[in-house]
Amino acid sequence: MSIILDGASVAARIKEQLESRIRRLTERGVIPCLATILVGDDPVSETYVRMKGNACRRLGMESRRIHLEPGTTTEQLVEVIRQLNEDSTVHGILLQHPVPHHIDERAAFEAISIEKDVDGVTTLGFAQTAFGFGLYPSCTPAAIVAILDAYQLPIEGKHAVVIGRSPILGKPVSLMLLNRNATVTICHSKTNQLSDIVLSADIVVAAVGKPRFVQGSWIKQGAVVLDAGYNQGSVGDVDYEACLGIAGAITPVPAGVGPVTIATLLKHTVDAAERCDL
């Protein structure tokens, strides 16, 4: 029988550990503040931003939301980020992905100060993650590792197969697992014989952005399956029902990786606030 990796309970423990830290900061007049930037009116992105804001407020943190018009230029967006960089009351900056196609997203990400890059989107943040000393690794990869640790699932010596190579998910989680002494195979849309490669994995990370893409027949008996996908209809990148019972442990969607991602974002913001308060 598969162990259901309950992300909601892992997230709750992370938030519980943050409460006393936030209280101490507040007593010194420092309220941890996360600024979220949303460009345009994408309803899914609006939902994500609202969830992050609500999570901040429930913990006594400040959520500062900046909502920009769909026609905002790259230059205008970068200027908003520059102002937030210079605002000492803002400790973390999150640019909600994706931005409209006419914006140079990478230029916008690079404008975020490394001290406030709490979602690990800058190239410097990525490089620090690769070397194993990043202040704030990308939140979803960090959440995946946090779930493995919370359930005491071993990483060292295991063969991890990551399906997806995005710079804020597939690539950084591969590096984080490698730094924990896993042997990592990165797969993508051009990978030949993908199902055979996945079948060899002790740990499978699905981050391909396709609903129910990973099939039950691809999973080795007892493998750990971490589904980082979220698609229309609240389904992940893994065929959950087909993999349930084959996998030794598996994250559901929703209530798997998602809640831990948000909790990790809050943790990084509190970390940044504490560093500013030193």
From TrEMBL:
Residues 138-275 form the Tetrahydrofolate dehydrogenase/cyclohydrolase NAD(P)-binding domain. NADP(+) binds at residues 164-166. Pathway: One-carbon metabolism; tetrahydrofolate interconversion. Keywords: Amino-acid biosynthesis, Histidine biosynthesis, Hydrolase, Methionine biosynthesis, Multifunctional enzyme, NADP, One-carbon metabolism, Oxidoreductase, Purine biosynthesis. It holds the Pfam family THF_DHG_CYH_C. Residues 5-119 form the Tetrahydrofolate dehydrogenase/cyclohydrolase catalytic domain. It comes from the Bacteria. It catalyses: (6R)-5,10-methylene-5,6,7,8-tetrahydrofolate + NADP(+) = (6R)-5,10-methenyltetrahydrofolate + NADPH; (6R)-5,10-methenyltetrahydrofolate + H2O = (6R)-10-formyltetrahydrofolate + H(+). Its EC number is 1.5.1.5, 3.5.4.9. Homodimer. Belongs to the tetrahydrofolate dehydrogenase/cyclohydrolase family. Catalyzes the oxidation of 5,10-methylenetetrahydrofolate to 5,10-methenyltetrahydrofolate and then the hydrolysis of 5,10-methenyltetrahydrofolate to 10-formyltetrahydrofolate. This is Bifunctional protein FolD. The lineage of its organism: Bacteria, Bacillati, Bacillota, Bacilli, Bacillales. The gene is folD.
